[in-house]
Amino acid sequence: MQDFSFIKDEHTRRIVANGYEAVDKLELWSWLKAFDAEGGFMFCSHPNVSAIGNKMESLENPPGHSGFSFAFTMRHLEYIAKNGLDEYKQFMAR
Questions:
Q1: Which residue from 4, 5, 47, 3 is spatially nearest to 26, judged by alpha carbons?
Q2: What residue ranges do the domains of the chain occupy?
């Protein structure tokens, strides 16, 4: 399990950790890195986006996402996929 204690907001920490675990278990980091989410994640019908959402909900203590919180989480995960976890930590420290 990845440590997200560097994220100050508890809710954000929880949903990002949940999403990270989902993408990790599904082994979709390479796919997410290459995915063009220009149209957003909230209404995206790509099967991998649905699989990530379903996996998030199947993990322990699921966050019970709204459309917005799911899209918010996916943008954080997309940042991690495209820039790496170390850069994400620096971004969150700003």
A1: 47
A2: 10-93
